[in-house]
Amino acid sequence: MRTTTLLLVLLTLSCGASAANSITIGKKVYFEAYREENKDGSLREYVQPSESLDTWTTLIGVRIFNKLTSPKEYILNMAAEYKRRFPLNQFAIFENHKTGGWIVDYIIFPSDLTEGVIEWNFFEAVPNKSGGGILVNQFAARRTVVNSLRETMKEWNFKEYRTSMFPLLVESGFPIKEEESGRRKTP
Questions:
Q1: Do 46 and 30 contact (CB within 8 A), yes or no?
Q2: H or E, element range at 118
Q3: What sign results for the dihedral spanned by CA atoms 115, 92, 121, 63?
């Protein structure tokens, strides 16, 4: 009897420990891998089940900035900073009239062009309707350069990838499924 009770307790604890918040984009589910909160806001990061924060190829970030008020200003400042750091990179910036948010997407590649990582980022900043400030959703995908940047981009089929992902990201709203409560919400 004690063994059965102990097994039930352990099973319950292990199931509870494995429950995790998730975000679904298209057909892929990303699970929470990191969470930080303070008086200025919060950050949650999500990866696919087979990946970690050290080994991700696709990452979703959800940030809340309690003291910021302008999604447009946030995105324009981000773009200016990245243009300063990566002057050869191209950026697309526009307003999402449906959400009242601002979007920037860009690709970062290594200056060497023969090694390192290529990373595509999509950010949308929107007014945070559930608590003030702004909510910033990020989708990042990266690939390791193999032989050359051109060869890696071709193998990745980046133009088609971006074209297929962009509408999904614009429409998704990055809804967080809270496993503990079973409710789906955006912070």
A1: yes
A2: strand 117-127
A3: positive
Distance CA 36, CA 12 (A): 26
- Average pLDDT in the chain: 83
Render pLDDT for 35-85 as a digit per residue (tens, 0 to 9): 999 999 999 999 999 999 999 999 999 999 999 999 999 999 999 998 898
Residues of the chain with pLDDT > 70, as a percent, come to 85
What are the residues whose beta carbons fall under 8 Å from the beta carbon of 2, sequence distance 6 or more? none
Cβ atoms of 103 and 75 within 8 Å: the answer is yes
CA distance 72 to 4: 58
Place of tokens 């199931």: 15
CA neighbor of 143 nearest in space, from 91, 107, 168: 107
For 44-53, write each residue's pLDDT tens digit: 999 999 999 9
**Which residue, 138, 129, 134, 146, is CA-closest to 169?**
138
pTM for this structure?
A: 0.81
Is the model's pLDDT at 2 over the cut of 60? no
Instruction: List, for residues 7-16, the tens digit of each pLDDT value.
Output: 333 333 333 3
Non-local (6+) Cβ contacts of 158 within 8 A are 107, 118, 120
